[in-house]
Specification:
Pfam families: Flagellin_C (PF00700), Flagellin_N (PF00669). The protein is an alpha+beta fold. 44% of the residues lie in helices and 23% in strands. Strands 5, 8, 9, 10, 11 and 14 form a 6-stranded antiparallel sheet that branches. It is rod-shaped and about 155 Å long.
């Protein structure tokens, strides 16, 4: 016979009630949270699997956020590039319009004014920011605008060549940016070109213009040599300039280091190696760089077009002969035509020779006397004069680089006996043709990038769908392991409440029993 003390009866009853209450509270917690497993002790095996599934869902959600961020950034970039294509197309239309021979000077200035506005719009789009305020086309320098104006007023790239990538799945990365140097700067040029820049240490007022290509062949011959233009003090308040190869220091203009510098006049055109540009506000010691290149930014292409509209007259003007006096027996070669003067002659005789020649090389060239000068009018070709051995007097102006200067058979100091003369109309027409080619190249580069962005967006879409499906599958498995069956839980709760109530009543009855009740 086993003896049970009152203490044991009370302890056993209380423990039983506590166990029933714990089970009841656990069921209530499952119903309130909707989860079958709230603590690892509820189901250790299921809890371990749920933990892994939670980590998987967290990983997928991180990648989904990356996909959303990448889509937002690429869509912003695509929208910006679409706007830029429209701007470039409008610039192209204006370029075609600028090539019309019926435009007045005022019409050209109106086109130039609109081009300047379009250039500002293009720069604004190139400095597009994403939703976080980072500049899309600046590479890794997202805190800085991609393009900014230099001291000379030219748009210059400020970023680097970095390309941002974002991981959108395990081992899967997608590019979410394209740096502006590849997109807008390294655009193949339709012909040899150059760009100018001021040295950062120059005086505040020193500026150099965008310039224009006068002779593509000479620019091509000079490439890839970069030139330096240095301003010198000639004494007495006069300034001069000297052009050298930047790396080697080899003299270019003047051709010898011992030669005096060329007099500098602020704003006057400087022509060297097929290039024309202007320097204004320079002081002694200032330096400017001329960089030849086979690439040209879309901004430089538009800037050069604006420069041409503002500085290159579209007219059949090749140069001028300011003094001419041939001796008997002299001859002069213009292009491929040799003009002979058996009895000598003056400027009128030269004009008659040019206008009366049937040589094919002089077709389209007209000699027109205006006052004491003879104007060479060329509708589309350049004019070259070879006065080698000419014994008379010949002075010219408007030559591409060096004017002819011969006095009674002797070549003047600093002059030459051969020269090529600019056909302003031919130079202008070439600028229009080159600009159209450059704009087409810029458009092609942008469109190619848009195509690449489209491919990236397709990749994001497919990866996003895969992540959605993976997330749905993981959540479904987790739900099966973790979520409570409400019908079963409510039934268990009712049964446990009934059992607890019965146990409480039974304990209340048995706890009052005592041996003293039997005495």
């Amino acid at each position: 016979m086993i003896r049970i003390s009152s203490q044991q009866i009370f302890s056993g009853g209380v423990n039983r009630l506590q166990d029933l209450n714990v089970n009841l509270n656990q069921t209530q917690e499952q119903i309130s949270t909707g989860k079958r497993v709230n603590n690892p002790s509820d189901d250790p095996v299921a809890a371990a699997r749920i933990l892994k599934l939670d980590q998987e869902v967290g990983r997928i959600e991180t990648y989904q956020r990356n996909v959303g961020l990448a889509e937002n950034r690429l869509q912003r970039e695509e929208s910006s590039l679409s706007s830029m294509v429209d701007i470039v197309q409008r610039v192209r239309e204006l370029t075609v319009q600028a090539g019309s021979g019926s435009l007045s000077a005022q019409d050209r200035q109106s086109i130039s004014a609109e081009l300047k506005q379009r250039l500002e719009q293009l720069a604004s789009q190139a400095n597009t920011q994403d939703s976080s305020g980072s500049y899309i086309f600046s590479g890794f320098q997202g805190d800085s605008p991609a393009f900014a104006k230099s001291a000379d007023g030219k748009w210059v790239y400020q970023g680097d060549e970095g390309q941002r990538n974002l991981e959108i799945d395990d081992g899967v990365n997608v590019a979410i940016s394209d740096h502006g140097k590849e997109l807008f700067v390294n655009v193949p040029s339709s012909g040899p070109t150059f760009f100018t820049e001021s040295d950062p240490d120059n005086s505040d007022s020193a500026r150099i213009s965008t310039g224009a290509v006068l002779d593509p062949q000479l620019v091509s011959d000079a490439s890839p040599t970069d030139l330096a233009v240095t301003i010198e003090d000639l004494g007495g308040g006069a300034l001069g300039y000297r052009v050298t190869e930047r790396e080697s220091g080899t003299p270019v203009v003047p051709p010898a280091a011992a030669d005096p510098a060329i007099p500098y006049v602020s704003g006057e055109s400087i022509r060297v190696d097929g290039m024309q540009f202007e320097i204004t506000g320079a002081e002694a010691g200032d330096q400017f760089n001329i960089n030849t290149s086979d690439k040209q930014s879309v901004f430089s292409s538009i800037e050069k077009l604006i420069y041409g509209l503002d500085n290159l007259p579209k007219q059949p003007d090749a140069g001028a002969i300011t003094d001419f006096n041939a001796n008997a027996g002299d001859s002069l070669k213009i292009n491929d035509a040799t003009l002979s003067f058996p009895t000598g002659g003056g400027i009128q005789a030269l004009a008659d020779k040019i206008n009366g020649s049937d040589d094919e090389s002089l077709a389209g060239i007209e000699a027109r006397i205006e006052g004491t000068e003879l104007k060479l009018m060329s509708s589309g070709k350049e004019v070259s004069i070879d006065a080698t051995g000419f014994n008379g007097t010949l002075q010219t102006s408007g030559a591409r680089f060096d004017d002819i200067g011969i006095t009674t058979g002797t070549v003047d100091a600093g002059a030459t006996d051969t020269a090529r003369f600019i056909s302003s109309q031919a130079t202008y027409d070439q600028l229009i043709a080159d600009s159209l080619g450059n704009l087409d190249n810029a458009q092609e580069t942008i469109l190619r990038t848009q195509t690449e962005i489209g491919g990236r967006l397709n990749q994001l879409e497919s990866t996003g769908e895969f992540l959605d499906n993976s997330q749905l599958y993981a959540k479904d498995i987790r739900s099966q392991l973790q979520d409570v069956d409400y019908a079963e839980a409510i039934s268990n709760l009712s049964f446990q409440s009934f059992v607890l109530q019965a146990a409480q009543q039974s304990f209340a009855q048995t706890s009052q029993l005592s041996l003293f009740d039997r005495i």
